[in-house]
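User: Can you predict the 3D structure of PCGF1? Sequence below.
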Amino acid sequence: MEEMMKIRIRHVNPHIVCSLCAGYFIDATTITECLHTFCKSCIVKYLQSSKCCPHLPGLFENEEKRREEFYNSRGLGNEKKDGDEKTLLKPSTIVNNPEGHKYKYDEQICLCLERYGPQCVQNGSYQLRPLEKKFVRCSIRVLVSQVKSLLRKKLSLPSDLDLDVLCQEERLLEEMSLKQLFLMHWYDKDSPVVLFYRLKQPELAQNEQLS
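Assistant: Sure. Here are the predicted structure tokens for PCGF1:
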């Protein structure tokens, strides 16, 4: 018979105590980007005045600084790309000054929403058109699903049709944030981030409904 292992409560406490209120978790809520957990009421109240994880303040800025120091230590600080006179762009050079946004710590990102190609459905009953005003500036925390909602409204899309949003020929997941998109697909490219929209392929929409 295996011997029962005894665990002292002080060894478990760090995993079940909220660092904001110093009490045990009530309705535990985890931040998806860093996986730190807090009481739901505590983190909601905290995020009303700050948009950074309580355990990782200034993480994004520190990462930029470490990256710059890494390149400088290897003599790559002024490396040019394809003969371009500009140095490698950092995220902070593309987003706008966050102080101008109503959320104090929110970064801003510029998007260009382009039609993927002329498409029609139902024998031409609906024609997907290019947007007259295709440039958008928004928070970097916005999700792809929210971009789709904006497109539906601007395009007056019928309720029985759906859209795909693409970046560099890759269809984007609705739960992806624009910050994730930028870091994965657009980190070393010029602003704005170019996104394409198209009518969802019928077989694709059917597969998603079945899954």
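The beta strands are 28-30, 37-39, 108-115, 120-121, 126-127, 135-139, 163-167, 170-171, 193-199. The radius of gyration is 23 Å.
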